[in-house]
Design goal:
- Chain A: InterPro entries: Ald_Oxase/Xan_DH_a/b, Ald_Oxase/Xan_DH_a/b_sf, Ald_Oxase/xanthine_DH-like, AldOxase/xan_DH_MoCoBD1, AldOxase/xan_DH_MoCoBD2, AldOxase/xan_DH_Mopterin-bd_sf.
- Chain A: It comes from Shimia sagamensis.
- Chain A: Keywords: Molybdenum, Oxidoreductase.
- The complex is a heterodimer of chains A (about 775) and B (about 260).
- Chain A contains 19 helices and 28 strands.
- Chain A has a seven-stranded mixed β-sheet with strand order 3-5-1-12-9-10-11, with helices on both faces. Chain A has a five-stranded mixed β-sheet with strand order 7-15-14-13-8, with helices on both faces. Chain A has a four-stranded mixed β-sheet with strand order 18-26-27-28, sandwiched between helices.
- In chain A, strand 10 (about 215-220), helix 6 and strand 11 form a beta-alpha-beta unit.
- Chain B has two domains: about 5-160, Uridine Diphospho-n-acetylenolpyruvylglucosamine Reductase, domain 3, CATH 3.30.465; about 165-260, Enolase-like, domain 1 (2-Layer Sandwich).
- Chain B has ten helices and twelve strands.
- Chain B has a five-stranded antiparallel β-sheet.
- In chain B, a hairpin with a 7-residue loop joins strand 11 and strand 12 (about 205-210).
- In chain B, helix 3 packs antiparallel against helix 4 (about 85-95).
- The longest helix of chain B has 19 residues, at about 245-260.
- Chain B starts with a strand and ends with a helix.
- Classes of the chains: A alpha+beta (about 775), B alpha+beta (about 260).
- At the A-B interface, helix 3 and helix 19 of A face helix 10 of B.
């Protein structure tokens, strides 16, 4: 019988009551007394010199309080980058200045030229139209390879070129990798693009800056996945405000998907302007603005080669990737194509030799940074595509080729610097094969063909490194931050608990799943536990939520703090029952003395902690509140096998997903329903990338797909009912819950299955096609079929 | 959105009068106009809602058997109430999503004449008569290119009269993002011949594919037009498909419409 409480139960998400009934408290719902509104005048030209800005007419418009330009930010810090990559030659990456408002030049369509603060939003917009900007258009740099050509126009005049870094990994392995390719019995080569995406969280970004003249304190309300990180970055690097004078609040946040990790100029602007004007200043992004101001994702162009010996064992992998950084370095941009990508190139396979080269390139486009999966989808896509192509070239079964090369012994140290703690890749593949009814595929294909349709089946595996990350390791790799997590567990006098976590929930359901862990540990009902997050004023310094880290790192911190609570409560219980600490047992919310019938309830102990009339005051303090900081010893390594079945209409090129099955190994699972939902959402985004989504720039740097009229988001009718299975569970060995992250797996694991299936379908129709770039839109498929 | 005045008259005469103001604009369901205004790409001085004009709502059958639809009738009402003309009801049922169909009107769509909208194909393939406050306009004369019609400034489309064909079908191939027609083809078979109208494909807006009409008027079967497609010159090329792809789709969708109508 399924549990109805604690770890492994699937209670309905308690936060959904307010989300679904319109009673959430999102940043835009916050109205600060006397707030003014800011509208940003954004460049509609991708690359231009600012020869002058005339504010005379605009400043005289009704309601205008002040118009800011880059000149107002001289002496103020720029938007910092949180990760420094060192290149193949030991040199640091090129790191351009990133001003809050453009200074001298605009570098992408959407770059902020000026900020109009007015009494109303409409007045601010009216005044922005009256600003006269003298822009001298410069050639736009859009294509990455052209950006690196000799004589290319530079996005940043003070850098030596548009190359941010040329990264080799592992550089000293390159000669051995090259030699393995010389000796290979077979080499499969594939060139592909990982399409640029716009994250499109349901809630656009919002920032409100507030300043209290009496105390000198600043407050920023913002749509962030990590308020403490924003406080540190903005306070220390941009505005020079110490943490104790700056509060950052990220209340209910309507989806992040990575793009709300980063510190954005609008946040710094609102905080700065609130102090300068002694008025709260509010900015709410429009959806149109989001397309040209939220950091984009992906955008890699890759050549991957796979070497095999005569027995079809993988002997080496070599990749060459150009990664688009956009016009400036967003907060974690440099880490995505390097440490979150190169380290995953072993995949699920015991390939002994791997070399990854990544050239990160500046272009006149929106900055690119982490988007659900961040580097790992790019790694998985190219690896699983080239393995599939190799199977076809060699005439072997794609599943058999994968199984033959699976890693089977753990822990396993890859040649790309990470050590997988646990996994069972045959186990997830077995589960997948059971779900996907592979033996029935030929009959389904024949039925499709009888209707004039092509049918294809595609499979892939994935491994990912999440639950980021050991601070000492990422420090060596260039991170300018630690990646621990924190929790304070406060037990109230009558026994209820409040957990103040450094993790942040923006759709993940922490308010439901985190209490399940404590309920399990203490043996109480989860309704006795409340989760507080998102406010630097009442949570310990934490690093926030991204990289599928919340339960693995934030949950572990909560476990450690709860263990301290239990240890102290046992001392109190021992005192109350006049027994030895070591004899106290906690079960079902009751403390008992081993071997006796003596017991005290959880609530008696917590009350004693706050009403310490009969209390061991000489040994322990009153109260029951503990904090823990947890720094993980390793990443967690969820893995899985996914299968997609498609139908392709040969007359129109339209691809329909007929079935999608996913077998994942997430180790131990706290709330199976929430994990199912995470997998569903991730697959939906992966199908979106594979079939529909594409941020497309023209040669002048104009974003062609800048609204939902041209940027295709997946809708319910675009995706099938998913088959999901998490029965294969190899618990993580290094965190106390044995959990692995599940938030990004679906988005990482699904795109190659879709493309493998489409290629399979087209080949069954007699088309000699080995690859189609994402998204496989009808017109692109039709073009592929019709040369 | 810029400020504007708003009027909601209850008679056509009052609406015509209200539209006499400089830069006044008629408002149907607002499914195109209001988003355009929100983006500050349109700035009418006054919006004149046609929604309060009772005689512009509803569906009836004329003395000549034509299906007459008031200009302010919503897509949802046409989808539910045009059972006498199943091809047209099907077209209306496939426009946008339920929210769009609950607000958008046939008159608004035909007055806007978006090159990817569905109704222009239905009206042109039906040889419909577009009735205004001032005159009657044949569909063949009404559509004059992208976002361009025979309507004069301030002229209101009050009713559309559709001769009901013996057989009809509308096939829409959706643009993946907007779900407007990447290409849409309406085929209508009348006693005196077949009419085929194409939306979404041409830079000139909705058009009749006369080559297919000639063949289908002889033999109304998909096989009769096997392999046929219009030329790709003048077809829209964009992110979602080349002109050649759209021209190809016109052939495919016409065959599918004929098969579905047969």
């Amino acid at each position: 019988m399924p549990k109805d409480n604690g770890i492994g139960a699937s209670p309905k998400r308690r936060e959904d009551v307010r989300f679904l009934s319109g009673t959430g408290n999102y940043t835009d719902d916050i109205q600060v007394n006397g707030q003014a509104y800011v509208h940003f005048l954004r460049s509609d030209i991708a690359h231009a010199k600012i020869n002058g800005i005339n504010l005379d007419a605009a400043s005289a418009m009704p309601g205008v309080i002040k118009i800011f330009t880059g000149a107002d930010f001289e002496g103020v810090g720029g938007i910092p980058c949180g990760w420094q990559v060192t290149d193949r030659h030991g040199e640091p990456m090129q790191e351009p200045a990133h001003p809050v408002l453009a200074q001298g030049k605009v570098r992408y369509v959407g770059d902020q030229i000026a900020a109009v603060v007015a009494e109303t939003l409409e007045q601010a917009r009216d005044a922005a139209e009256a600003i006269e900007v003298d822009l001298e258009e410069l050639p736009a740099v859009v294509d990455m390879k052209a950006a690196l050509a000799d004589g290319a126009t530079k996005v940043h005049d003070d850098l030596t070129s548009n190359l941010c870094y040329d990264w080799g990994f592992v550089e000293e392995n390159k000669p051995a990798v090259d030699a393995a390719f010389e000796a290979a019995a077979h080499v499969t080569t594939l060139e592909l693009r990982n399409n640029r995406l716009v994250a499109n969280p349901m809630e656009p970004r919002v920032a409100i800056g507030d300043f209290n003249r009496a105390t000198g304190d600043s407050t920023l309300y913002t749509t962030s996945q990590n308020p403490h990180v924003i406080r540190l970055l903005m306070g220390a690097f941009v505005l020079g405000i110490p943490e104790h004078k700056l509060r950052v609040v990220a209340p209910d946040v309507g989806g992040g998907f990575g793009t709300k990790i980063f510190h954005y100029a609008e946040e710094a602007f609102c905080t700065f302007a609130a102090k300068a004007l002694n008025r709260a200043v509010k900015w709410t992004s429009t959806r149109s603005e989001a397309f040209i101001s939220d950091a984009h994702g992906r955008d890699h162009v890759t050549k991957i080669e796979l070497a095999l010996d005569a027995e079809n064992n993988f002997t080496a992998v070599r990749t060459d990737t150009h990664a688009n950084m956009g016009a400036y370095l967003s907060t974690f941009a440099p880490s995505v194509p390097t440490w979150l990508h190169g380290t995953l190139m072993a995949g699920n396979y015991k390939t002994p030799l791997i070399y990854v080269n990544v050239k990160a390139v500046f272009t006149n486009t929106v900055p690119v940074d982490a988007y659900r999966g961040a580097g790992r989808p790019e790694a998985t896509f190219q690896l699983e595509r080239v393995v599939d192509k190799a199977a076809r070239e060699l005439g072997v079964d794609p599943i058999a080729l994968r199984r033959q090369n699976f890693i089977t012994e753990f822990p396993y140290a890859t040649p790309v610097a990470v050590e997988y703690d646990t996994g069972d890749y045959h186990g997830t593949m077995d589960a997948l094969e059971n779900m996907a009814d592979i033996s029935g595929f030929e009959a389904r294909r024949k039925a499709s063909e009888a209707r004039g349709m092509l049918r294809g089946f595609g499979v892939n595996c994935y491994i990912e490194a999440c639950g980021i990350a050991p601070s000492n390791l990422v420090g060596q790799l260039g991170a300018r931050a630690g990646l621990y997590e924190s929790a304070t567990v406060r037990v109230n006098a009558t026994g209820g608990l409040v957990v103040m976590t450094g993790s942040h929930s923006h759709g993940q359901g922490h308010e439901t799943s985190f209490p399940q862990v404590i309920a399990e540990m203490i043996g109480i009902d989860e309704s006795m536990v409340e989760i507080v997050h998102g406010d630097t004023a009442n949570t310990p310094m934490g690093m926030g939520t991204y990289g599928s880290r919340s339960i693995a790192v934030g949950g572990s911190a909560m476990v450690r703090a709860t263990e301290k609570i239990i240890a102290k409560a046992k001392k109190i219980a021992a005192h109350l029952m006049e027994a030895a600490d070591a004899d106290i047992e906690l079960k079902d919310g009751s403390f008992s003395v081993a071997g006796t019938d003596k017991s005290v309830a959880w609530g008696d102990v917590t009350l004693a902690a706050y009403v310490p009339h009969n209390y061991p005051l000489e040994d322990i303090e009153p109260g029951l509140e503990e904090t823990a900081f947890y720094d993980p010893a390793n990443f967690t390594y969820p893995s899985g096998a996914y299968a997609c079945e498609v139908e392709v209409d040969p007359e129109t090129g339209k691809v329909t997903i007929e079935a999608f099955n996913a077998a994942d190994d997430f180790g131990n699972i706290i709330n199976p329903m929430i994990v199912d939902g995470q997998v569903h959402g991730g697959i939906g985004q992966g199908i979106g990338q594979a079939l529909l989504e594409n941020a497309s720039y023209d040669e002048n740097g104009q974003l062609l797909s800048a609204s939902y009229m041209d940027y295709a988001m997946p809708r319910a009718s675009d995706v099938p009912f998913y088959g999901v299975d998490h029965s294969s569970q190899t618990p993580c060995t290094h965190n106390p819950l044995g959990v692995k992250g599940c938030g990004e797996a679906g988005a990482i694991g699904s795109p190659p299955a879709v493309i493998n299936a489409v290629v399979d379908a087209l080949r069954s129709g007699g088309h000699d096609i080995h690859h189609i770039d994402m998204p496989v839109s009808p017109s692109r498929v039709w073009q592929a079929m019709n040369g | 959105m810029y400020n504007f005045d708003f009027e909601k008259p209850s008679t056509i005469a009052d609406a015509v009068s209200a539209l006499g103001t400089e830069d006044a604009q008629a408002l149907g369901g607002g499914q195109t106009l209001l988003p355009t205004m929100k983006q500050r790409l349109a700035s009418p001085s006054k919006l004149v809602s046609l929604n309060g004009i009772t005689e512009m709502h509803g569906i009836c059958t004329g003395d000549d058997g034509a299906l007459c639809i008031g200009g302010a009738t919503t897509h949802a009402d046409v989808a539910a109430g045009a059972g006498a003309y199943p091809g047209l009801a099907g077209l209306a049922a496939g426009i946008g999503d339920p929210a769009v169909r609950a607000r958008g009107t046939i008159g608004g769509s035909l007055a806007n004449n978006d090159p990817s909208a569905c109704y222009p194909a239905g009206a042109l393939a039906s040889g419909a008569t577009l009735v205004t406050n001032a005159r009657e306009i044949a569909a063949d004369d009404y559509f004059q290119g992208m976002f361009t019609t025979a309507l004069d400034e301030g002229e209101i489309l009050t009713e559309v009269r559709f001769p009901v064909p013996e057989a009809s079908n509308y096939q829409k191939f959706e643009q993946p993002a907007s779900r407007f027609a990447l290409v849409g083809v309406f085929v209508a078979k009348y006693a005196d011949g077949v009419r085929v109208a194409v939306t979404g494909a041409s830079e000139e807006g909705v058009f009749r594919w006369t080559e297919a009409e000639a063949v289908l008027s002889g033999t109304f079967s998909a096989d009769a037009i096997a392999g046929m497609a219009p030329g790709s010159d003048g077809m829209i090329s964009d992110l979602h498909g080349t002109g050649a792809y759209r021209a190809h789709l016109v052939g495919v969708l016409t065959r599918r419409a004929v098969t579905a109508a047969s």
